[in-house]
Amino acid sequence: MITNKNCIIRLSRYKNALYRLRDLGFVKVFSDNLADAIGVTASQVRKDFSLFGITGNRKGGYEIASLLEKLGGILGKDRIERVIIAGAGHLAYALMHYRGFEKEGIKIEAAFDIDPLKFAKNAQIPVLPMEEMKDFVVSNNIKVGVLAVPEVGAQRAADTMFAAGIKGILNFAPLRLKAPNDCAINNVNLEIELENLVYFVNVLEKKG
Amino acid sequence: MITNKNCIIRLSRYKNALYRLRDLGFVKVFSDNLADAIGVTASQVRKDFSLFGITGNRKGGYEIASLLEKLGGILGKDRIERVIIAGAGHLAYALMHYRGFEKEGIKIEAAFDIDPLKFAKNAQIPVLPMEEMKDFVVSNNIKVGVLAVPEVGAQRAADTMFAAGIKGILNFAPLRLKAPNDCAINNVNLEIELENLVYFVNVLEKKG
DNA sequence: ACTTTATTGTGATTTAATTCACAATAAATT
DNA sequence: AATTTATTGTGAATTAAATCACAATAAAGT
Ligand SMILES: NC(=O)c1ccc[n+]([C@@H]2O[C@H](COP(=O)([O-])OP(=O)(O)OC[C@H]3O[C@@H](n4cnc5c(N)ncnc54)[C@H](O)[C@@H]3O)[C@@H](O)[C@H]2O)c1
Ligand SMILES: NC(=O)c1ccc[n+]([C@@H]2O[C@H](COP(=O)([O-])OP(=O)(O)OC[C@H]3O[C@@H](n4cnc5c(N)ncnc54)[C@H](O)[C@@H]3O)[C@@H](O)[C@H]2O)c1
Fold first, then answer.
1. Do B85 and B188 sit in the same domain of this protein?
2. Each residue of A45-97: pLDDT tens digit?
3. In chain B, what percentage of residues exceed pLDDT 70?
4. For residue B168, which of A163, A197, B69, B198 is within the disulfide window of CB 3.0 to 4.6 Å?
């Protein structure tokens, strides 16, 4: 069981590059094409595939269709992933209106909030009270959620999500969530991303 | 010059943990406190500090105030970082209304768009035509930008940013930008973050 | 059919990152 | 003042990730 996050992220990138190549009419691809497309070495590509038992044809490269199927299987893209959001604020609004998730097989089913002003039971993507999360998650068998609640309420909201049966959280709140150890957390900390960028801009400036 | 991204991200996390400890009234901290706070080992903390020549007192730990100052210096937090956004859509709206950047010393100065309907010259954070980016960036000496333009326009918008003098981009568009090699790119690909989360949720499910 | 050529697949090697382990030492205790 | 204790700082060891390098081999060419 491979648990190298970078490796799994590369698989996603290969997949996205393959979609583009396929849409351009390509049928086969070589490891160095994929390498160029995502900015790694060709042996990295082959090693990644090797790790998951993905094989191509010596001399003939890889068949895009079959590669996409295998990568899709590994990444769980063989079915639509249904997702909820905790916190129906600005960020949630952007996520709910983003059309790009659909074509990746990701569907935001509902958002949950504590503020009655945010409730919208009959909207295309309904916004419901936090109290209804458990029922919704259980009856729709949802496993993944996005946490878009302010820092102060974040741990409490996460606990509600875990109690509802959520097993993975994409966390936008700038703190380290405590989670049961059968649950996964991916943090997106934009303050830190920007801070990090500033560091590297300064490094490059000093170097150049 | 340390260029290990994970290491720099840990510095940010130490800093954030230290702010919290300081606000709770603590004056000193030991490597194992910081380790617990951000979820790494104590020797990782000490090694990270050692890499940047940060020292504490044997037996006495580290003084929080001085540590914060040193980390701030390394991360460029000794001055306010001024930032622009390309693309004044949903995501930009969320970013422009987010109050959390201020207290991290990040200030969004303006957004730029091609859609005249988005223009708002006199708003608190003005939304200006792309054509005005260069003047604005040059006269305000801005180095960092956020790219929040749809995939199709993303490379063109990035090129405009580079031409304006931007040296680092936080990129939300789901593609690999081509950039001059004195410029830094940090990608935030939310589709991939979710996909990755799904993978690890499935892994955990199989394990348990 | 044989040879050449291009590309895979992977064990071996290298490089990078993390952890270990302990001497150095500052503070606290006796 | 001597001893104990707790903690740093870092070189050494370990582990993890990436790259190298090349034998295996499938396709194309002669
Ligand atoms: N907006 C950004 O650009 C941005 C940038 C970086 C980080 N973040 C982080 O993302 C998260 C969301 O940011 P935002 O700008 O959308 O915030 P927001 O204030 O616009 O929205 C937060 C929503 O969460 C709701 N809420 C508060 N407590 C709750 C609880 N306990 N349970 C459920 N809902 C609750 C509020 O009613 C509100 O609707 C925050 O943690 C923020 O720190 C946002
Ligand atoms: N909104 C999300 O939740 C989300 C999630 C994942 C990824 N993204 C990515 O983030 C980016 C922004 O998403 P969004 O939802 O804010 O999009 P959006 O459609 O709401 O806004 C995009 C804005 O960019 C402007 N624009 C278009 N072409 C431009 C150009 N060449 N130069 C300058 N401006 C231009 C448009 O006028 C619009 O105002 C996209 O690349 C998207 O793929 C967004």
1. yes
2. 999 999 999 999 999 999 999 999 999 999 999 999 999 999 999 999 999 99
3. 100
4. A197
CATH number at residue B89: 3.40.50.720
Last residue of a domain, one of A19, A40, A74: A74
| Closest-CA distance of chain B to residue A59, Å | 28
Nearest Cβ partner for A198 among B76, B183, B190: B76
How far is the C-alpha of B186 from the C-alpha of B168, rounded, in Å? 8
CA B48 to C1' D5, whole Å = 25
**Cα separations in angstroms, B193 against A30, A112, A172, B8:** 26, 21, 11, 20
pLDDT at A206 over 90: no
- Residue A188 CA to residue A203 CA, distance in Å, equals 23
A50 shares its domain with A103: no
The whole-angstrom distance between residue B188's C-alpha and the CA centroid of its chain comes to: 10
Between CA B107 and CA B99 the distance in angstroms is: 10
Q: What is the pLDDT of residues A188-201, one digit of tens each?
A: 999 999 999 999 99
Q: Provide the domain count of chain A.
A: 2
- Residue range of the domain that includes A127: 81-192
Are residues A86 and A70 part of one domain?
Answer: no
A97 and A63 together in one domain: no
Dihedral pair phi/psi, residue B161, rounded to 5°: -65, -45
| pLDDT of amino acid A62 | 97
